[in-house]
Amino acid sequence: xxxxxxxxxxxxxxxxxxxxxxxxxxxxxxxxxxxxxxxxxxxxxxxxxxxxxxxxxxxxxxxxxxxxxxxxxxxxxxxxxxxxxxxxxxxxxxxxxxxxxxxxxxxxxxxxxxxxxxxxxxxxxxxxxxxxxxxxxxxxxxxxxxxxxxxxxxxxxxxxxxxxxxxxxxxxxxxxxxxxxxxxxxxxxxxxxxxxxxxxxxxxxxxxxxxxxxxxxxxxxxxxxxxxxxxxxxxxxxxxxxxxxxxxxxxxxxxxxxxxxxxxxxxxxxxxxxxxxxxxxxxxxxxxxxxxxxxxxxxxxxxxxxxxxxxxxxx
Amino acid sequence: xxxxxxxxxxxxxxxxxxxxxxxxxxxxxxxxxxxxxxxxxxxxxxxxxxxxxxxxxxxxxxxxxxxxxxxxxxxxxxxxxxxxxxxxxxxxxxxxxxxxxxxxxxxxxxxxxxxxxxxxxxxxxxxxxxxxxxxxxxxxxxxxxxxxxxxxxxxxxxxxxxxxxxxxxxxxxxxxxxxxxxxxxxxxxxxxxxxxxxxxxxxxxxxxxxxxxxxxxxxxxxxxxxxxxxxxxxxxxxxxxxxxxxxxxxxxxxxxxxxxxxxxxxxxxxxxxxxxxxxxxxxxxxxxxxxxxxxxxxxxxxxxxxxxxxxxxxx
Lengths: 315, 315
Hints:
The structure is a homodimer of 315-residue chains. Chain A has 315 residues and is α/β, with parallel strands linked by helices. Chain A is 51% helix and 16% strand. Chain A contains 13 helices and eleven strands. The first copy, chain A, has helices at 11-22, 37-42, 50-60, 73-81, 97-106, 149-161, 171-198, 202-206, 209-215, 222-230, 233-252, 254-273, 288-297; strands at residues 4-7, 27-30, 63-66, 88-91, 111-112, 115-117, 138-142, 165-169, 277-282, 301-306, 309-314. In chain A, the strands form three sheets. In chain A, strands 2-1-3-4-5 form a five-stranded parallel β-sheet, with helices on both faces. Chain A has a three-stranded mixed β-sheet with strand order 6-7-8. In chain A, helix 11 (233-252) packs across helix 12. Chain A is globular, with a radius of gyration of 21 Å.
């Protein structure tokens, strides 16, 4: 497998370095000074100076994995551009269109394929990272009309090597999806938590498990929630409008909202428990792009790549 | 302790019968034909014909505990009225003002003190009931300006005997509180689940633990959610308006919503982990009503009653 250069040693970057190394991929990393560089080195991982790491990546045409927060992406892309104009590049940032836009602006010749592993935990930083973080998780790997499938396959192989299953999706579709299943739930949790605490302590006293579950993510540090939502502001605004409309509907008639909500939840349970049908996509066929995207749209995942064929499970 | 007559053998009624019996209270029950009467009898519980159970309750001035769904309350109150005009009465229905209104209409001389144990599980019916369901749970016991504290103490003693801690609250305040911490979270879960499932399967595929937690209660049978919300329609409408306003605010500026939500969730965690200050309320004092209600408003609970004193823990 192609060598890997991970930029950033937080929870996700650290876990990519660990998981890829455990899978036998030759990998090295770089991180901003003052982070967990020493801890990673002490564990025997190869942590280089950023310019040294990027020089090695350029020389060996390694896959570079950007594992920094969205606000740092522009600067790191500019650093990469000093060493190579057409890197093989992926990232693990939780929104995809802003990263794609930044790559098109700063490194227009990059062989870029965005990624987003759907895994996390409450703790952050290298000390929370784990080689098993991605085991069984879904990992969105982005596919735009101009994406070369050879590059897509390389990024896909990294995700699979880390133990994940790959969900093919366009960057814009990915961002609209996470607005619905991640960013809106955060905003809902904040609103519920605020309303629960608004009029004295009696409501919070009477709150049971359902309220705890519904407000759990409101315990996330505000600046992290803010950064996450700001990075996907347009898609979040759109789905907030839909949510306000749905709640206005509930104000008039509860029945339809309850029925459709129950159908949605049933669909989630079905999707998760369905054994799935096996499919195979020939990556050399002209319809491969469309075939891969259709798998994601139907809620399927790529479980393996074997020669020129991607094997999928579709519910 | 005073004998107990439980009307209804579902999850909550059955658990009250089991827990009270286990605590040494002489208890009998009645239930609608076709329910779990035989199963309860087979376990050695005394299950009588409804009229027989009510005659025994009238003769012994037992505490009658109404454990039927809200739509059945009027009919059961009328049945009680055929045997006694001034029963000592409580209930375990999840909304309190509609039951209070029904008692005032049908049994105006009843010595009524409403109750709501904040405990439940996904399963329902006698087979799901358990003597331990209320262990460590909060149990709201209602206090209106006209409530006789001797009657309030009797209902409080039942809740404590069942292993719960008592939260004193007015019926209207209780209903406004549960609209915030139970009914609105249900509506939010329905809206999230519907929006997640609306545009193809990609969003549900990418959904992780936070979406599962946030939509879990949307898996509840629609008719149960409907009945629960309909029983508290006025308070729910009011807090839905507040929620729509908060989401409109989030649409304009996310920062304040995130900050106040985080404060609310922190307050919940604080309330739950606070060791609490011990307080005692003299139930014979003229300010006893106000003192008890203040405990609930401050997020406190009554942990024991000892002679004429209620012992409380207040965060």
